[in-house]
């Protein structure tokens, strides 16, 4: 007898990963509490130890080890990881998110007030913590690290306790790095896809699957991007319509990011990551900062006002470690603040002009297009942030005798790839708004100023200064 055999349908392996996350929530919680324990130990124990001396290394000194973990490994590689696998860090490992959700589970479950839902919080919180971190030398000393990270954790728990039930209101609306992660996740080649057709079919069948406990409050049915999703897997398989799936890393920026203009994200990209963050990395190496400091010093001496040159402030306002010969005076602090803010304003304005020029070249002025085109700079913005943060990793390891080979070549390659990626996205987004090749080319010329400035600021930092 001739038997016809139908092979079972192949299940996408990524779908299985999503389903695995769904089934293993307990294991995920165990991992989260392990990270919480490590996080608290690395944050708190160094507070009770003397500051590391010159012989201390990451291998024999917990404070140095904690510095490397927080600023050399965690921060840069979570940024990179988010661009590779979405916000899995947030959903599966982040100690702050886990603690906030825990507090929410046992809290008073209040309604989320309107002021918390203001879309500008992630951008504002990123700017404030970046500036404050520089003022207090958060990367070098345990006390400001405990104040900034610990303060953020306490606030996350308080918000969790006050609002929502089993939710992560803090992560969704207020986390200082949530805005950066939301941008980076747009580049991820993985996402939880919600299929509207399968969803409708499930409704028509009369499925009653219950509710999904989505902690960051993502609207599951209309979810189109990966920005808000924490990749926790709790919705995997819901209504047979949601699954972990591959996608093009260009997809979200080209096809989703332009549908709803997000001015707060535009500010975060142009003035935040490509402006303020650049100033925060630059100032300590900048010859312009040194010149400005000398000019300010000379001016204050000329007018006989010495106090700003001599007076320091408590460590929780401005770096103040006389034993380490590391003290910022009031004049230093004011200049630092001015340098970072001037970077944000100047770079943000020039980049905005460049993006505006490219949009105008595509046709009539349109604010929605402007916000969409700004999103094409996300690869460059993310690459710059990663390079700036990983410079600390390289320096910290180098001081302990670990030399990473070909660092300059790797940096140059990374920057070049990010520039090409941003250019490609600009080209594809331009095609959505005009069919004229001439207009698209002109738009690219407009955008090229932005690429030059974004890449140039890191060339200055790594190769010229
Ligand atoms: S949409 Fe919500 S429940 Fe689904 S994976 Fe993302 S964060 Fe988890």
Outline the structure in words:
Residues 69-108, 166-188 form the 4Fe-4S ferredoxin-type domain. InterPro entries: 4Fe4S_Fe-S-bd (IPR017896), Electron_Trans/Redox (IPR051684). This protein has 465 residues and is mostly helical. It has two domains: 11-48 and 57-247, no CATH class; 261-464, no CATH class. It has helices at 13-23, 25-44, 62-85, 88-93, 95-105, 121-136, 142-162, 169-174, 178-185, 196-205, 251-256, 263-282, 287-302, 307-310, 330-362, 367-375, 378-399, 407-433, 437-464; strands spanning 190-194, 242-246, 320-321, 326-327. The protein has a two-stranded antiparallel sheet. Strands 3-4 form a two-stranded antiparallel sheet. A hairpin with a 4-residue loop joins strand 3 (320-321) and strand 4. 41% of the residues are buried. The mean pLDDT is 94. Iron/sulfur cluster (SF4) binds at residues 91, 192, 212, 214, 216, 218, 220, 223, 229-235.
Summary tags:
about 475 residues; mainly alpha; two-stranded antiparallel sheet; binds iron/sulfur cluster
Question: Which helices and strands appear, and what pairs or packs with what?
Answer:
Elements: H1 13-23, H2 25-44, H3 62-85, H4 88-93, H5 95-105, H6 121-136, H7 142-162, H8 169-174, H9 178-185, E1 190-194, H10 196-205, E2 242-246, H11 251-256, H12 263-282, H13 287-302, H14 307-310, E3 320-321, E4 326-327, H15 330-362, H16 367-375, H17 378-399, H18 407-433, H19 437-464
The structure holds iron/sulfur cluster.
Iron/sulfur cluster binds next to loops.
């Amino acid at each position: 007898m001739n038997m016809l055999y139908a092979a079972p349908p192949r299940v996408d392996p990524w779908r299985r990963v999503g389903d695995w996350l769904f089934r293993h929530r307990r294991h995920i919680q165990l991992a989260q509490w392990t990270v919480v324990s490590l996080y608290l130990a690395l944050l708190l124990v160094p507070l009770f130890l003397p500051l590391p001396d010159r012989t201390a290394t990451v291998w024999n000194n917990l404070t140095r080890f904690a510095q490397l973990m927080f600023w050399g490994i965690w921060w840069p590689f979570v940024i990179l990881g988010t661009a590779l696998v979405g916000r899995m860090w947030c959903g599966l490992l982040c100690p702050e998110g886990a603690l906030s959700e825990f507090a929410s589970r046992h809290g008073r479950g209040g309604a989320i007030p309107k002021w918390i839902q203001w879309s500008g919080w992630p951008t504002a919180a990123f700017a404030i913590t970046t500036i404050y971190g520089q003022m207090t030398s958060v990367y070098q000393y345990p006390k400001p690290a405990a104040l900034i990270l610990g303060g953020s954790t306490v606030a996350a728990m308080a918000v969790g306790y006050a609002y929502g039930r089993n939710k992560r209101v803090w992560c969704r609306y207020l986390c200082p790095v949530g805005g950066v992660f939301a941008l980076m996740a747009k580049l991820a080649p993985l996402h939880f896809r919600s299929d509207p057709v399968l969803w409708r079919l499930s409704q028509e069948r009369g499925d009653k699957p219950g509710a999904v406990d989505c902690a960051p409050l993502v609207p599951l049915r209309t979810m189109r991007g990966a920005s808000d999703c924490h990749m926790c897997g709790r919705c995997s398989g819901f209504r047979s319509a949601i699954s972990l799936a591959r996608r093009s890393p260009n997809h979200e920026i080209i096809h989703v990011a332009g549908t709803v203009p997000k001015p707060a994200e535009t500010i975060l990209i142009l003035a935040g990551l490509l402006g303020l963050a650049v100033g925060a990395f630059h100032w300590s190496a900048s010859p312009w900062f040194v010149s400005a400091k000398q000019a300010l010093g000379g001016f204050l001496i000329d007018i006989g006002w010495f106090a700003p040159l001599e007076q320091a402030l408590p460590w929780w306002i401005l770096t103040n470690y006389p034993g380490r010969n590391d003290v910022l005076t009031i004049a230093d602090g004011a200049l630092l603040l001015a340098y970072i803010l001037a970077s944000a304003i100047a770079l943000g304005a020039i980049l905005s002009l460049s993006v505006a020029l490219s949009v105008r070249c595509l046709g009539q002025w349109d604010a929605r297009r402007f916000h969409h085109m700004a999103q094409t700079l996300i690869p460059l913005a993310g690459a710059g942030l990663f390079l700036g943060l990983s410079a600390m990793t390289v320096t910290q390891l180098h001081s302990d005798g670990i030399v990473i080979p070909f660092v300059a070549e790797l940096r140059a390659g990374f920057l070049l790839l990010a520039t090409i990626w941003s250019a490609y996205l600009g080209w594809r987004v331009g095609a959505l708004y005009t069919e004229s090749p001439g207009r698209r080319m002109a738009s690219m010329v407009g955008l090229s100023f932005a690429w030059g400035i974004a890449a140039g600021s890191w060339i200055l930092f790594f190769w010229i200064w």
